[in-house]
Structure formats: structure tokens, C-alpha cells
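User: I'm writing a short methods note and want a consistent example. For DNA repair protein RecO, I'll paste the sequence; you return only the C-alpha cells, no commentary, since I'll be parsing the reply automatically.
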Amino acid sequence: MPTYRDEVVVLRTHKLGEADRIVTMLSRRHGKLRAVAKGVRRTSSRFGARLEPFMVADVQLYQGRSLDIVQQAESLGSYGAEIVAHYDRYTSAHAMVEAADRLNEAEATPQQYLLLVGGLRALSRGEHASRSVLDSYLLRAMALSGWAPGLGECARCGRSGPHDTFVAQQGGVICRDCAPTGAARVDAATVSLLQSLMAGEWDVVDAASHGSTAAASGLIAAYAQWHLERGIRSLSHVSAPQEGHR
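Assistant:
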């Protein structure tokens, strides 16, 4: 019988029958996977806790006709407990895994897997503001999928910046000649913060003003909702950045 192993992040689960679950996972080598975990809802299950959302595991799967079957699961990163204990981490993690679930098969690459693992690890450790971790993840995930926002040259005509208008539908920062009436203006500090979130320059991100952080979060949310299929419903539950909040 064909079996295979892979490292996975659990994105979501839902019940199947009385004791089983269907587990949706982003894997390191096989893209997105949906598999049945038999008996995991029983208290005697050996690996049910290892197949909860936000968990990272080494799994062995049996290749089924329609759905694969999880045969073994060994924990690689138990991030769930620290994430669910804090509302801001929990809602940010939900938005991250929902965004990962929106990836199509061609986009579900090893780089996307590693990016998500790194983001969940940072959330669990409380290293930075949860909303900033989410914002950085969304920008990088979209960049890996080929949707990097233009943050220097005009995203429409290519004119050299700096520019002070952001339009999600046109790909990011654009010049005033290309900007439609009523387009959102952004200051230089917010554009610089967007660039730092994309690059993972956490010393700059952590030192940013509350105003710039809130403005950047709003632009990133608009950009992600425009480009990702069906949007990210979990974003409506994520708290706005708060001054001094970690």
C-alpha cells in the first residue's frame, strides 16, 4: 500500500462521523493535503492533540482513493497552546492559516510552508506585536505567490518614487498621475513600514509609531482581501493595532 511522510502545518479540521476528523494541512513537499484522521476525537486517541490547528507535525499518510489517511503523527512544534491563550495571537493565527488555505496547489510551495511555520512560531513566543506578525506574513505570502505590492516605483506606470498614494486594485503604491480620484494617501513613514514588514526588519517594525502601524495594517488588509480568493474572513476578528500592545 502506498504511504508517504511529510512535515505539515494543520490549517483546519472538521468532524467526520462520530470519532474521525478531516484535517487540512499545508505540507513541506506535497502542497496542501486533506486527509482523514481516524478516531482522533476519542479520548484514547494517540495523536489527536498533534492534529489541531496551528500544530506542526511529521505525519505518515496512506494514499487513499479520494482522501488520504493519517497513520502516524509526531509533534514538531506545539505552538497551539501558547497561541490560543492570547486572543490577539489566536485571531492573528486564524487569519494566517486561512490565508495559507487560500493558496492554490501551484502556490503551496516549501517556501510557503516555512513562512507559515516561522509566523506561528513568532506568534507563540510573543516576540512582536501579533498584528505585525500577521501583516508581515500576509505581505510575504502574497509576494511568494507573485502578488508582491509595488512599494517603490509606481505599480502602474513604473515611475520612480517616492509616491504617496496606495491603491490595492492597481498593485500598491502609485504616482498621482495614475491615482484615481479619492485614492488613499499614505505618508512616507507608512510606506517605509510596509517595506520593513516585507523585508522582516523587526527593529524598524517594533519601533514604528502607532499611527503608521495602524495605517499599514489597513492597507495590507485591503490588499490581501483584493488578491486572495474569497478574501480572509478571519481578518474581521483581528484587533486593530494598539499603542504599546504586544
